[in-house]
Amino acid sequence: MPQKAFHDPAFKCDARVHPVCALSKGSRWDMGPKIHYRPTELIGCLLMVGESMDFYLRKCYHGAIHERLYQNVASEGAKAFAAHLREFWNHINSTPLVFPPNIAGLCSFSRFKIGVRQNPMFSNLVQRRGQSARRCGLPSWCFVVGSIVFGIHSLSAEEDDWPRFRGTNGGGASRSELPVSWTPSRNVAWRTPLPGPGVSSPIVVRDRLFVTCYSGYGMKKGELGDIELLKRHLLCLDTVTGAMIWERTVAAIQPEDSFSGIGIPAHGYASHTPTSDGKHVYAFFGKSGVVAYDLNGNPLWQTSVGTESDPWKWGSSSSPILYEDLVIVTASAESQAIIGLDKHSGKQVWRQEAVGLDGMWGTPALAKVDDQRTDLVLSVPKEIWGLDPTNGNLRWYCQATKAEQVHSSPLTGGGLVFAFTGRGGGSVAVRAGGIGDVSPSHVIWSGPDSARFGSPVGYRSNLYLVGNGILTTINGRTGKRVSQLRLTGGRASSGGSGTADFASPVIAGGKLYYTLSTGDTYVFELEGDLKQLSVNVLTMDSERFGGSPAISRNRMFVRSDKAIYCITQMESDVPSNASLALFTDTSLKPAGESVDLADNGSSPGNEASASFGAVAFDPVSIFNSRDRNQDGFLDRSELRGDLLDILTTRDKNDDQLLSLQEFRDYSRDVFAANFPESPSSSSNVNSTRTTRADQRPARPQRPMPSDDSH
Q1: Residues 6+ apart with CB under 8 A from 48
Q2: Over 70: is that where the pLDDT of 412 sits?
C-alpha cells in the first residue's frame, strides 16, 4: 500500500488502493483536502495509522490478511470488513479488538466526540501516532470507539496489590487466576478467626492483608452489651499463611448510634474498607475518625471528621481513597462532608460540606480526563458530581436518576463514569470533564437497571450487575441489556434486615465471582457465552458474609462476621459444583437457567430483597416490583418469607390481598422514626431527606464550585 495514502493529505484515496474507502457512499465528512471518510471508515483509519502500524503494513501489504480485507469489503460489505479488521488487529496486537459485527452500527457514536487524550489507554498511542493521524486527516474524536470499548476492558489488567475497596480505583478486576470450584477442605488455603463482625472488605499490600471489625457491643441480637465498650479493630495478616501479624484497637467516640432500627443492625460498626499507599494503611471508623499506621502497625495519627448522625441513624459506609498526598474521606453521616486529609500528618487540607451527601453510601472513584486533569467522581442521590481532588471544589455535576438513595459505587473507565443508583432509580453513563451543569452535553446513555448494595464491574465492553439473584449483562456503550442469568443452586439468603447481600462482584481470569451473605460464591464464565460454572461453599456454619472479596497474586480473600478465608488453586481435581453435595434442604435448579428480561421474581439468592431491610429502603418500589400482574395488590404468590406474615397482621378486609397503603402503613409502623419521609416535589432537600429531629447545621446542596465552573 503506498505510504502517502496515510501521510499525504493531498493524495486522493481510491477504493482500489485503500480498502477502507470501498465503504464510501452517501454523505461524508471532509477530513482533509482530498481525503473523505465516513464514521465506518474512521475506525479502519485509526487502526492503520501510526509508525508501528505503517511498518507492519509495509511488511504485510501483499500478505493474506490485507488481501482478504480488500477482497471482502466490496463483496460482503461492512460486516465482513469488521470481521477481517478484527483479525488484522488481533494479529498485530495482544489486546483483542471487540466491537459489534456490523461496524456500521458504530456510526451512532459520532455525536459523542470525546477527545483523544481523555482516554489514558490511548495516551501513549497518541504521542507516537498523533502526527500520522493528523496527516491522515483524522479528527481527535475518532478515538471515541476505542475509548468506550477498551476503557472497560482495561479494568481486567490491574496491578497485583488490592489497595482499596474493590481494588485499584474501585474497578473490581484482577489478572489473577483463581480456582473455579472449592469446598471447605479443598482449595481453601487457610481460615483465620476474627475478634468480631464487620462488612468491610479486605485489602492486600504485597504479602500483607488488612481488614477491620468491631467488638464489645452489638455483636449478637438480644445480647447487645454496653455501648460504652464498643471498639474497632484493624488487623494485619500474612496472606500466605493467614497468621496474625499485628492488631490495633480504637475505642469508640461516644455517643455512638445504637444497635437499633434497620441500619446499624444490617452492617454494624465496621463498614468502611481501609486503603493503603504501599507504605501506610488508613482506616475510617465513623465517629471515631480516621486512623493511620505504617505497615508494621506503628500509629501515625488519628483525626476526627465529625460526630453527627444521619437522619436515619444508619451510619456511613463510604471507604477512604487516596489521591497523591491526600486521604479523601466521605463523612456523609458524620458531618455531611467530603474531606481531604494530608496523608502524612492527618491535618485537614480541604473540606466540602453538602446536604446532597445524605443518602449516599458508595465510595468515590477517580476519572482521568486528560494528562492534566483528574476528576473525583461521586454518585449521590439524583446526581453525579465531579470534584477537583486537590481542593474538593465542584467542577461539574450531572442529573442522573431519580433515586433518593445510592448504596453502590461509581465505576470509571475510558473517560466515562458509570453509576447504578438505588432501587427504581436506574443507571447512567456520563462523560467525565466539563464545567458546571453538564447534563445536556455529557450524558452518554441512561438505563432502567438499578443496584441494591453491590457495585457494577466491567469486562471488555460489558458491565455486570448482580441483584435479586440475577446476573445482568449491560452493554457499556449503549446501556442496553445484553442478557440476564439467574443464580441457581446454593442456599437462599434468609429474611431479616441483617442478611442483605452487600458484596459486589469481582472479576479474575475472565470469570466473575459473586458471594452471597451465606458465603456461597457463584462463578460465571465471561468469555464466549455467559454461563454459570459453579457455586461454592466456604463453611456450613452460620456465618454472615458482607464484604466484597479481595484478589491478589492468584488468591481470593473473603471475610465473614467470624473469620477470613483464603481461596487459591491447591488441587486440580475439585469437580465443578463439588460444594453442592454439602447443601441440605435445598431444591436445586439447572445451572445457568435463562431469565426472562421482564422477570423480577424470587429465586435462590434473592430472599434478602424480601427482607425487612430491603422493604424499609423503598416500600413503594418493593411493592411495585412484586406486583407482577400490576393489579395494585400482592397475593400469597407474590409474597415470600417475612413479607408473607404481613397478610396475617395487615389484611384488614381479610381478602388475602395486601394493598399498597397497607404495605406502606406496615413499613412505617415497624421502622418508626428511623424511616425517612417520602420524597416530595419540593426543591428543599432538607425537607425530603431529613426528619424533624434533624438538628444539623444548614449546608449547601452541593460542594463549593470551582472558580471556572460558574
Answers
A1: 6, 20, 57
A2: yes
